[in-house]
Amino acid sequence: MSTVETNSATAHGHDNHDPHLAHHFDTPEQQFQSAKLGMWVFLGTEILMFGGLFCAYSVYRHNHPDVFAVAHEALDRTLGAINTLVLITSSLTMAWAVRCAQLGQQRALRWLMAVTLIGGYGFLGIKAVEYHTKWEHNLFFGHWHNTYYGWDGKQPVKGYFQEELENKEANGEQPGANGSEAPTAPEKAPAAPAAPAPAAAPVAEAAANPASSIPDMTFQPGSAIDGNAGTNDQAKIVATFADPRGVAPHYATPAGEPAVNVNNLTPPDAERMYTFFAVYFFMTGLHGLHVVIGMSVIYWVLLRAGGPQRKAYLVPAAPISVGLFLTYLGIIIPGPSRLPLLVIGISIAVAGALWAVLWSTFGSRVPAAEPEFGPNYFTPVDLAGLYWHLVDMVWIFLFPLLYLIH
Amino acid sequence: MTLNTGAISTGHRGFHESHEHADNYLTHDRGIMSWLFTLDHKRIGVMYMIAVCTAFFIGGMFAIMLRTMLWHPLDYAANTAAATRSYELYNHFFTLHGAVMVFMFMVPAIPAILGNFVLPMQLGAKDVAFPRLNLLSFWLYCTGSVFFLYLLFSGITHAAWGWHWPGGYGLDTGWTFYTPYSSSKALGGVVPATLGIFILGFSSILTGVNFVATIHMLRPVGMTWFRMPLMLWALYSTALIQILATPVLGITVLLLGAERAFGIGIFDPRLGGDPVLFQHFFWFYSHPAVYIMILPAMGVISDVMVAFSRKSIFGYSFVAASSLAIALLSFLVWGHHMFVTGMSPLTNAVFSLITFCIAIPSAVKVFNWLGTMHGGSIRLKTPMLYAMGFIFLFTIGGLTGLFLGSLSTDIHLTNTYFIVAHFHYVMMGSTLFGFMVGMYYWWPKMFGRMYSEKIAVTGFLLAFIGFNLTFFPQFIGGTQGLPRRYASYTDGPMVHVPFINHGVPLFVTVHRMSTVGAYTLGSGLALALLSWVLSLKFGPKAADNPWGANTLEWQTTSPPPHDNFKYTPLAGDPYDLEGWTYEPDTNGWVNPASQWATVSAAH
Fold first, then answer.
1. For residue B263, which residues of chain A lie inside 8 Å, CB to CB?
2. Is residue A15 packed enough to be buried (19+ CB in 10 Å), middle (13-18) or exposed (0-12)?
């Protein structure tokens, strides 16, 4: 790129004006307005891209209303709400940062962008907890999902609802009386047919006579009331069972229980909860990717705002924070991925810290440069802020559509 | 701002001063890196030209190969093993032909090559609004193309040596990637293809964003919206479609890739997904994409019609507004690709009606071009010949489209060669011919050299005859029920031809005419390539304005300097040809009253 920089410098040789003004613009104002127009148009394309997903959401919710009504209860509203607050707050700090850039308040600009980044990490951290819980309960999409046994009825994997079934079987008709074990790490691979899994008997039965056996897999209203289930999600399901909201007459149980719950879904619908989770994971996953991209952009702007004299700690801050985040993931996620996450996370963080110490101790002293952003030039801060608000706004739509439907 | 503000200092470039134009964008910097990382829209346009034409060559070779395979249908019963292998290969060929041509040639061809080159110059600007983004678009295009090259080589090595590649080899889904075949059954590399298309789409979006911002923000003094050259209106409408439609394709292919890779179950009916939703998503992009391909070609034709008829455009505002109308209506007609897929009769009828409506702005354009030619002094130079070829082919393509937009005939014609012929007339006949128009029209401006008119016109005649020979018989075969996308075919009905008393088998005849036509077309395009390559080496120097057009890009040197203009242009009526007179010495046109003449005289 250095060739290019020299080109434009030598070719046009306008030394007497704003260093940020590109050669093909007449005024800084025109350049700023162009950049802003371009960014808004680009954000429009982002919205349209999510629009495709919102469309898919509408189609599947329309096709399977009861599936959505039941399946969304497995999402943790509290964590979702906290995440919403985290994102809104980070949007506030970002908007404030833009204002600080416009006013030339350098210190506040840097701190507010740093706080925005911390908000991003906070969001991702909470999301990781949620994802992990779903994974543990086999509430996943497609082949990985397991309402009872797995999408094809052949994988004897311990599922979210199957635990209730086991409790019922183990305790006769008093499922709520005894505490159930906490959800264990599921076997993701299809077990051998002869595997002595607890679900082996129902599977064999299902294979022999699916029509008669599938109703047996359901459990009676109230059977899931289990205070010792150990997860927040379970309590949500329990609440639905007792909650008369969301009547679905065509699926009502013979006894007339009006609630939409996993018991009075038709067996195909009960299996079809992976549809909801496909939509859930794809939408939140793509949104999460946008959070990461937004954080990268803000970090890049933060580096520029910091100037060369702060690089010694702002550059290593990236590996340090990523390493700490991976360490955090290792702490919250048990199982085989814990050790690698902890090792890699701690190594990256320590290496980053070491880098910072070495750089600031032995690095050559960089004289403080004129701050890049100020009342005359704040375009990158503004555009990064716009992108971050888009990320925020998408979540504002995702949260009610996924967590709060009924 | 004085006129000489942008004067370039060439003090340290004394080497070039012996040339008549001391500094142009081709000689401004040297070395491969000065091209690969240039921010100059003209150089990026030239790089696109090389990359996109390479893609066209690859896609064209697939076409030639599959036409060759269809010369003689392999009988499945006679030699099952060979036929299976051959059929599989055929599926890969027609898929890659379609995918490469659509995503790597037709979508970027005119906007990215010609648009990049002329858009800032027609605006009198020094560059597009975001030069870095422009370079990024180009590199994204190359990155996306790598995925298709991967499919190409994995398919070849699998066919030749049976190698297996991660992600699958070749691609056999058809360029439309219909689910559930693509999500569960296809042999080929759906995941690499979806990633490639996603990245190519990103390139297209960024080009669109860039063009919209450029046209909004960088118009010169005096150029109001209704004084823009019609090429700019066309590029603006194209950019709108790129921005509005491509993101939906992006999410669709992402979902398809995730479906294929992880089984998320969005489109897979076994997992509760809806395969028809894929078709809706896909055509919501891909129908507007048809207009991404054709609108810029229409813009080129509008400009060329004026220059070669020596007459101002007929009905400027109608041509401009019809571009926008096409862009908007293009979003409302995707359902006509799905008449037999299973929508409600009402939906079908509505889509059919809107499809008829979109014929109106298209016809407005055709009539305005004819009106421009009417009473003009027409010069049949190569660009004009291609432009008239465009109108001829586009009219046939458009009128046959009405058969497909009518519900009753569409059900009969769906998935026959009628469709193939129709969209090749519209897509290839029009987009490719429009592209050729633009290439020949702006070639002197791009490289400062004229081409051999003889070779170019011969190439045009071969291409035009070859094109019609390839695709016109397919209309007839299609109406008689010749199905598309089949690796083999039967004789079909016997057709009684005068003087051949036993008749000829229709389907065999159609296929063989098509194959001969494809070779003819290919040789015509090869001659076009030859005329360009020869012109670079032997072509006489081009005048600054070899065609006598009044749009701003002709009011600078050929090839233009790095900064496009040595002065700040003022825009007037782009189609006012008053004052331009032919000057035989330079084989160019001059206008003593033009700003360019004033500035040149001052130097």
1. 141-144
2. exposed
Distance separating alpha carbons of residues B168 and B188, to the nearest angstrom: 5
Collapsed DSSP state (helix, strand, coil) of residue B339 = coil
Q: Is the dihedral of CA A270, A271, A275, A281 positive or negative?
A: positive
Q: Is the pLDDT of residue B167 over 90?
A: no
pLDDT in tens, A227-259: 333 334 433 343 333 333 333 333 334 444 444
State whether residue B35 sits within 8 Å of chain A by CB.
no
At A215, which amino acid appears? P
Interface residue B209 vs chain A (CB under 8 A): yes
Inter-chain touch A41–B255, beta carbons under 8 Å: no
Q: Do A56 and B125 touch (CB under 8 A)?
A: no
Nearest CA in chain A to B281: A52
Amino acid found at B597? A
Chain-centre distance of CA B112, in angstroms? 10
Closest CA to B274 of B203, B330, B342: B342
Secondary structure E strands in B417-548: 494-497, 500-505
Q: What is the mean pLDDT of chain A?
A: 74
Cβ neighbours for B534, distance < 8 A, ≥ 6 positions apart: B451, B452, B455
How far is the C-alpha of B391 from the C-alpha of B404, rounded, in Å?
20
Residue-wise pLDDT tens digits, B196-238: 999 999 999 999 999 999 999 999 888 999 999 999 999 999 9
What is the DSSP secondary structure assignment for residue B590, as one 8-state letter?
A: E
Restricting to A residues 276-305, those with a Cβ less than 8 Å away from any Cβ of B are 278-279, 281-282, 286
CB contact under 8 A, B209 and A8: no
pLDDT at A213: 34
Which helix (H) or strand (E) covers residue B9, if one does? none
Q: CB-based contact (8 Å) between B374 and chain A?
A: no
Cα separation, A94 vs A384, in Å, equals: 9
Q: What is the ipTM of this complex?
A: 0.89
Mind giving me the DSSP string for B527-581? Answer: HHHHHHHHHHHHPPBPPSSSS---SGGGSS-SSPPTTS-SS------TT--TT-E
Please provide the average confidence, as pLDDT, over all residues in chain B: 90
Convert B199-260 into a string of H (helix), E (strand) and C (coil): HHHHHHHHHHHHHHHHHHHCCCCCCCHHHCCHHHHHHHHHHHHHHHHHHHHHHHHHHHHHHH
Q: How far is A23 from chain B (nearest CA, A)?
A: 8
Q: d(Cα B454, Cα B460) in Å, to the nearest integer?
A: 10
Half-sphere exposure of B532 (CA within 13 A, CB side): 19
